[in-house]
Specification:
CATH class of one domain: Alpha Beta
Helix content: 40-55%
Number of helices: 16
Order of helices and strands: HHHHEEHEHEEEHHEEHEEEHEHHHHHH
Radius of gyration: 30 Å
Strand content: 15-25%
Shape: elongated
Number of strands: 12
CATH topology of one domain: Gyrase A, domain 2
C-alpha cells in the first residue's frame, strides 16, 4: 500500500473504531485541507509504527508461540462431533501436515453447507446420496477372470443399482470412457472387459482390480457422507474431498463450503483463499486441543510467509527454511554440509543480517537493542 492521503485510504488501513475517532477529530479541527492531508499521513504513519516495537523479532516470537503449546498436543485422530463414522486427523499430526504443506491430508474431509431453499433433511439426504462415490465393486455381487475367453466378468446387483439410482446406459458409457483401450460388453446384469491384445493371467488379475475400483456414480473421492443438524441448519460432512465438483452442484452454499485440503483450495479458489484456509485449519486444530489463547497474529504471519510467493511453501528444507538468503541460516536448519559446499562452489556471500547466523558466530543479533550502534562523541575542548 502506498502513502495514505485520503480518508478512504485511511479507512482501509485502520480498525473501524480507531478510524471513526480519527475522522471525528479531523472534522472538529480547524485545519485547512492541506493540513488535514498532512494529518492523515501522520496518523497512518503512527499507526503502522505502533503495530510492533522497533527491532522486535516477531518471527522468532511467532515460532515460539506456535511451537511451545504444540509440544503438549496429542498424537491421535479425533472423531468429528456428531459424526462417529468419520475420523479426521487433528492434534500434532495435523499441524505437521499443514506446515509441511502436504499435497493431500491423511484424512481429507469437507464441510458442505446448503442454500436456504435446500436446507431440509430430505434435500440434504438427497444431495448426500448423489455425491457419495460408488465404484463398480460396490454394486457387484461377484467378479472373476474368465480364462476360457481371457476376459474379466463382473456380475452386478440390480437392487444396489436401484438404491444408488444408477442407470445401466450411463454406467456403461462412463466405463467405456475410462477403459478406451479395452473391449467392453454389457448383457443383463453382467459386464465383461477384455484387452484388445493378448494378455497374461497376471495382467487380467490387475485389470480385474482396476475395473472394480472404477468410478460409476457420485463425486470422485467422496468416500463417506454424514448429515448433521446444527444451529446453521443441515450440514453434510464428508470423508474425502473434491471441492471443484461439489461447488458445481445445485443447492450448495459455495460461500461457506469448506475443505481441509489446502492445495485444493489454492487450485480452485486461489492463493488468498489458501492463506485463509491455512489460518482456519491451524486455529481449528489448536482450538480442538484447548489452545485457544495462541494469538491469531502469529498464525497469520506464518500463513503470509507460506503463501507470499503465490504458491504454498512448506516450512522446511524444501520450502521457507531451505530457500533463505543466508547460507549459515540454511546450513543451521538441515543438510549442513550440502549448503556449505554449495555456497563455496558458487562463491556465495553471507551478509549476516538475520538472527540465526549471528548467534552461530557469537555476534550481537540485529534485533531489539542490537539493531543500534551507540556512538560517543566527546565534547570539544574550548580553545584558551
Amino acid at each position: 500500500m502506498g502513502e495514505v492521503e485520503t480518508l478512504e485510504q485511511l479507512k482501509e488501513l485502520l480498525p473501524e473504531k480507531l478510524f471513526e475517532k480519527s475522522k471525528e477529530a479531523l472534522k472538529k479541527s480547524d485545519l485547512t485541507e492541506g493540513q488535514k492531508k498532512k494529518a492523515i499521513i501522520k496518523i497512518a504513519d503512527l499507526y503502522v509504527k505502533s503495530k510492533f516495537e522497533a527491532g522486535e523479532a516477531f518471527g522468532v516470537i511467532a515460532a515460539q508461540s506456535l511451537s511451545e503449546p504444540s509440544t503438549q498436543m496429542t498424537m491421535r485422530t479425533y472423531h468429528m462431533a456428531g459424526a462417529m463414522q468419520i475420523q479426521v486427523t487433528l492434534g500434532l499430526p495435523r499441524l505437521v501436515e499443514i506446515f509441511d504443506a502436504r499435497r493431500a491430508p491423511s484424512t481429507p474431509a469437507m464441510t458442505i453447507y446448503l442454500k436456504p431453499s435446500y436446507n431440509t433433511r430430505e434435500k440434504a439426504m438427497e444431495i448426500a446420496e448423489s455425491i457419495t462415490e460408488v465404484k463398480l465393486g460396490n454394486i457387484a455381487t461377484s467378479s472373476f477372470v474368465d480364462l476360457g475367453n481371457m476376459q474379466v466378468e463382473v456380475v452386478l446387483d440390480e437392487k444396489l443399482m436401484r438404491k444408488h439410482k444408477i442407470k445401466e446406459e450411463e454406467m456403461v458409457e462412463q466405463l467405456k470412457l475410462d477403459f478406451k483401450n479395452y473391449v467392453l460388453h454389457q448383457r443383463g446384469n453382467k459386464v465383461t472387459i477384455k484387452p484388445k491384445d493378448d494378455a497374461t493371467v497376471k495382467e487380467l488379475q490387475k485389470l480385474r482390480s482396476k475395473f472394480l475400483d472404477s468410478h460409476v456414480h457420485g463425486v470422485k473421492s467422496i468416500e463417506n457422507v454424514v448429515i448433521n443438524q446444527k444451529d446453521e441448519g443441515w450440514i453434510i460432512n464428508t470423508l474425502g474431498s473434491n471441492l471443484a465438483k461439489i461447488l458445481e452442484l445445485d443447492g450448495i452454499d459455495s460461500a461457506r463450503t469448506l475443505t481441509n485440503n489446502i492445495h485444493e483450495v489454492a487450485k480452485v479458489l486461489g492463493i488468498e483463499a489458501a492463506r485463509a484456509s491455512i489460518v482456519n485449519e491451524v486455529l481449528l486444530t489448536l482450538k480442538e486441543q484447548g489452545l485457544e489463547d495462541v494469538d491469531v497474529r502469529h498464525v497469520l504471519l506464518v500463513a503470509d510467509v507460506m503463501t507470499a510467493g503465490g504458491t504454498i511453501k512448506a516450512v522446511g528444507r524444501y520450502g521457507i527454511a531451505g530457500t533463505k538468503g543466508s547460507v549459515l541460516a540454511r546450513a543451521n536448519f538441515e543438510e549442513t554440509m550440502k549448503h556449505l559446499t554449495k555456497a563455496s562452489v558458487y562463491n556465495e556471500i553471507d551478509t549476516l543480517e538475520s538472527i540465526v547466523e549471528n548467534v552461530m558466530i557469537n555476534q550481537v543479533v540485529p534485533a531489539g537493542t542490537g539493531m543500534f550502534d551507540i556512538v560517543f562523541k566527546p565534547p570539544l575542548k574550548k580553545k584558551e
